[in-house]
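Retry 2 of 3 after timeout on previous attempt. Resubmitting structure tokens to design endpoint.
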């Protein structure tokens, strides 16, 4: 999917910092393609980009308004539709990663056609996805998993790709969510795939490879999130991961969207993910943990990583803050055979 850059990133009236993760991901990993951010006066958030009206974005060279927000159910409210219409009126293409399709909003589809502009629905799965088989396939694959949704699995995956490449290894990022797809320019929006085909979609996205390189697969959801565990399970089976990296936000006190549900213990969560992954990759192992420590000062963040590493016997880092060298060491060490935590054994 080739979405014309530069981008004007949409924040709208969002007040939840996690809900702008797609715009934030683009601002972080494709900043050179982002001219500014569009937000209403009641939005307290910023990406550190110039705040622009749609007209100012066009004047600055933007070609596409990216509706880089997420909400439960992925729907478009009237304000968002009105803002998308204004962008089309101004001559911008519009891209969205929401479940509700831009093309299914008649006024947007008609206006885009009239103006000769494009609507990009990022959460469109490819056609003819096969049913997964679980048949063993060659290659080295690492999958990021999480204690919850939106805890940094994509950030960790991209950091691992860069870390492996810095060591001279061949490594490729395999995107499975809207933000990752927008950053990479391709992938499979796994949460939009019919349930029977989830594992097959990953087998198709990450086929066998014999070049000695790594596929780093972006995780989705969490086995401990009642709303999204189904996607996480299919991803674990389709990925056939050689190694898992567990991601966690230590500032979070409950499951996102279901705060009454406590977050799982880290050792238990890693062990459970390993157990589920063993259906298609019996020798899967844990290779490390990644924490999102953005809510903490640097000294506290380093202490959290050190304490977690000591407790689980695996390298632990904040990938965006401290890098992933220790986890890359673990992945590349041929003698490494770190056993699964014993919480579920």
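Retry 2 succeeded. Sequence:
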């Amino acid at each position: 999917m080739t979405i014309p850059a530069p981008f004007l990133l949409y924040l709208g009236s969002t007040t939840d910092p996690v809900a702008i993760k797609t715009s934030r991901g683009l601002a972080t990993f494709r900043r050179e393609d982002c001219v500014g951010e569009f937000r209403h006066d009641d939005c307290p958030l910023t990406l550190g980009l110039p705040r622009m009206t749609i007209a100012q974005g066009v004047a600055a060279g933007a070609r596409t308004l990216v509706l880089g927000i997420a909400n439960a159910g992925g729907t478009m409210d009237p304000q968002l539709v009105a803002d998308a219409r204004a962008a089309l009126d101004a001559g911008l293409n519009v891209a969205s990663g929401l479940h509700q399709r831009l093309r299914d909003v008649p006024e947007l589809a008609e206006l885009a056609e009239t103006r000769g502009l494009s609507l990009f629905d990022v959460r469109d799965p490819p056609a003819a996805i096969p049913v997964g088989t679980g048949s063993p396939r060659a290659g080295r694959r690492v999958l990021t998993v999480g204690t919850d949704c939106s805890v940094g699995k994509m950030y960790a995956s991209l950091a691992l790709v860069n870390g492996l490449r810095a060591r001279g290894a061949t490594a490729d990022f395999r995107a499975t969510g809207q933000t990752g797809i927008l950053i990479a320019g391709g992938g499979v929006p796994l949460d939009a795939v019919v349930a029977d085909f989830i594992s097959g979609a990953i087998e198709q996205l990450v086929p066998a490879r014999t070049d000695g390189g790594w596929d780093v697969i972006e995780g989705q959801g969490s086995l401990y999130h009642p709303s999204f565990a189904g996607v996480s399970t299919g991803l674990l089976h389709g990925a056939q991961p050689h190694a898992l990296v567990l991601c966690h936000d230590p500032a979070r006190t409950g499951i996102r969207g279901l705060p009454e549900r406590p977050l799982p213990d880290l050792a238990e969560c890693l062990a459970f993910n390993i157990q589920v992954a063993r259906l298609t990759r019996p020798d899967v192992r844990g290779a490390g943990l990644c924490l999102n420590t953005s809510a903490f000062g640097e000294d506290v963040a380093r202490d959290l990583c050190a304490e977690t590493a000591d407790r689980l016997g695996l390298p632990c880092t904040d990938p965006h803050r401290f890098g992933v060298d220790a986890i890359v060491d673990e992945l590349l060490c041929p003698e490494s055979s770190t056993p699964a935590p014993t919480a579920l054994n």
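Attempt log closed. Residues 8 and 35 are 6 Å apart (CA to CA).
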